Amino acid sequence: MITSRTWTKELLRELIETRLSGVKFIVVSNREPHMHRYAESGEMECIETTGGLATALRPIMAATKGTWIAHGAGNADRATADEQGRLPVPPGNPSYTLRRVWLTPEQEEGYYYGFANEGLWPLCHIAFKRPIFRLANWETYQEVNRIFAKAVIEEAAGERAIIFVQDYHFCLLPRMVKEMGGANLVVAQFWHIPWPNREMFRTCPWSHELVDGLLGNDLLGFHIRNHCQNFFETVDSSLEAMVDREGWQVTRGGHVTNVRPFPISIDFEANEALATSPAVDTAMEKWCRKLRLGDRLLGVGIERLDYTKGIPERLRALDFFIESHPEWRGKFSFVQIAAPSRSHLPEYQAVEDEIDKLVEKVNWRWGRTDWQPVTLIKKQHGSVDMVALHRLARFFIVNSLHDGMNLVAKEFAASRVDDDGVLILSKFTGASRELDTALGVNPFSIHDTAHAMHQALTMEPEERQRRMKSMREKVSDNNVYRWAGNILSHLMKLDISEATVNE
Ligand code: F6P
Question: Does the pTM exceed 0.85?
Answer without folding.
Answer: yes
